[in-house]
UniProtKB/TrEMBL annotation:
Highest taxon listed in the record's lineage: Bacteria
Residues recorded with modification N6-(pyridoxal phosphate)lysine: 221
GO function terms (MF aspect): glycine hydroxymethyltransferase activity; methyltransferase activity; pyridoxal phosphate binding
Site (Plays an important role in substrate specificity): 220
Function: Catalyzes the reversible interconversion of serine and glycine with tetrahydrofolate (THF) serving as the one-carbon carrier. This reaction serves as the major source of one-carbon groups required for the biosynthesis of purines, thymidylate, methionine, and other important biomolecules. Also exhibits THF-independent aldolase activity toward beta-hydroxyamino acids, producing glycine and aldehydes, via a retro-aldol mechanism.
HAMAP family, sorted: SHMT
Catalytic reaction equation(s): (6R)-5,10-methylene-5,6,7,8-tetrahydrofolate + glycine + H2O = (6S)-5,6,7,8-tetrahydrofolate + L-serine
Keyword tRNA-binding listed: no
Protein name: Serine hydroxymethyltransferase
Highest classification ranks of the organism: Bacteria, Candidatus Gribaldobacteria
GO aspect biological process, one term: glycine biosynthetic process from serine
EC top class, as a word: transferase
Pathway: Amino-acid biosynthesis; glycine biosynthesis; glycine from L-serine: step 1/1; One-carbon metabolism; tetrahydrofolate interconversion
Organism: bacterium (Candidatus Gribaldobacteria) CG07_land_8_20_14_0_80_33_18
Length: 416
């Protein structure tokens, strides 16, 4: 590579990923095959439109690739229709809103404090600027979704669309209950499964179909594919969804990423992928157990999925400091808001951590539990330089025992 500055920074980033413990629940290590697709000349092609209906010539092979990606996505998610073109999870959500809503229409979605995403009507996001979002939260005692509240709000505000989805809710989503409420008021039901797509494929979480009209996801979290989005829907919404993606909100699709999505869907059909997803949950639970044992309070008391949310509101240290100190020793977590948050989103009362990336490295419960112990030790000794250095060494040792992207400096070697 001629550009030494960028070359060296890419090398450093790969080294950081190799030598760090990634506990950010939305991150993962894509396979070399997925990464390779994204570095191909497919990136050069313009292919506005859909397979066999393009605005540009020269799309013979691109059409085949997109057809394969669509067919695999439909099979994988048992969906009647798939659109593989959204550039990201946010784009997928934007396309669904454009397809189903008019500006100012009402939508009922989880609040940011109850695991919601920015695209569920945050006032600083297009969704909150264009549409009228009403939010539901969680029950103050159980910290789980309260279907009485959701039904009450649905009846009161009559949303055209109900959204269920999560970025930080550690429990399973009950699509059937959401559907019962949506049916009572004739609303569409959308599930955003960005975080839990892999778990759903492996039957570690209930399936959004047939309950939901439309399902959006990212392809890069538990699904472990390229950075991107995907929309799955019932047949009767296919035309609306496709038009909303292109020409509605996007121009030319990212054909190199669509090829990578196709590869990721094939990988996700394998038995080893299902085993991997089961291990993700076991590892998240092993971490949860360690935190509980050490006296930490977890939101909802534990986890059903790939993530846990630690409540540090009673601590003197703030979450930003914990995130920063862990970063310095090579452990990556998120500061995150918790239900009924009393601090600010910039310095909230929660630490969110998850198991997808460490499980891709080959961690089992023993190593996941030990990783949690390292986090606990750091939090308890946050001002002790000597102990922090010891933990840093332990992190390095652990990552060397479970290597990732081994073979060359651009990640084409994937240990598992
Ligand atoms: C539930 C959920 N939806 C949508 C998104 C947006 O995905 P992207 O970052 O690809 O736009 C995220 C990302 O964190 C998410 O967690």
């Amino acid at each position: 590579m001629e550009d030494k500055k960028i070359y060296n920074l890419i090398k450093k980033e790969i080294q950081r990923q190799r030598e760090g413990l990634v506990l950010i629940p939305s991150e993962n290590y894509a396979s070399p095959a997925v990464l390779r697709c994204m570095g191909t000349p497919l990136s050069n092609k313009y292919s506005e439109g859909y397979p066999h209906k393009r605005y540009y010539s020269g799309n013979e092979y691109i059409d085949e690739i997109e057809d394969i990606a669509i067919e695999r996505a439909k099979k994988l998610f048992k969906a009647e229709h798939a659109n593989v073109q959204p550039h990201s999870g946010s784009q997928a959500n934007a396309a669904v809103y454009l397809a189903l809503l008019k500006p100012k229409d009402t939508v009922l979605a989880p609040s940011l404090f109850a695991g919601g995403h920015l695209t569920y009507g945050s006032p600083i996001n297009f969704s909150g600027i264009i549409y009228n979002f009403i939010h539901y939260g969680v029950n103050p005692k159980t910290e789980r979704y309260d279907f009485d509240e959701i039904e009450e709000k649905a009846k009161k505000y009559k949303p055209k669309l109900i959204v269920t989805g999560t970025t930080s809710y550690p429990r399973a989503l009950n699509f059937k209950k959401f559907k019962e409420i949506a049916d009572k008021i004739g609303a569409y039901l959308m599930a955003d499964i960005a975080h839990i797509a892999g778990l759903i494929i492996a039957h570690c979480h209930s399936h959004p179909f047939p309950f939901c009209d439309v399902v959006t996801t990212t392809t890069h979290k538990t699904l472990r594919g390229p950075r991107g989005g995907l929309i799955l829907s019932k047949k009767d919404l296919a035309e609306k969804i496709d038009k909303a993606v292109f020409p509605g909100i996007q121009g030319g699709p990212l054909d190199h990423v669509i090829a990578a999505k196709a590869v990721c869907f094939k990988e996700a059909m394998s038995e080893s992928f299902k085993k991997y997803q089961k291990q993700i949950i076991l590892n998240a639970q092993a971490m949860a157990q360690e935190f509980v044992k050490a006296g930490f309070r977890l939101v909802t008391g534990g986890t059903d999925n790939h993530l846990i949310l630690i409540d540090i509101s009673s601590f003197k240290i703030d979450s930003k400091r914990i995130q920063d100190e862990l970063d310095k020793i090579g452990i990556y977590v998120n500061k995150n808001v918790i239900p009924f948050e009393k601090r600010t989103p910039f310095n909230p009362s929660g630490i969110r951590l998850g198991s997808p990336a460490i499980t891709s490295r080959g961690f089992k419960e023993k190593e996941a539990g030990y990783t949690a112990q390292l986090v606990i030790k750091l939090i308890k000794n946050i001002n002790n330089k000597k102990i922090k250095n010891q933990i840093k060494k332990e992190v390095k040792k652990l990552t060397q025992k479970f290597p990732i992207y081994e073979m060359d400096s651009f990640g084409s070697g994937f240990a598992r």
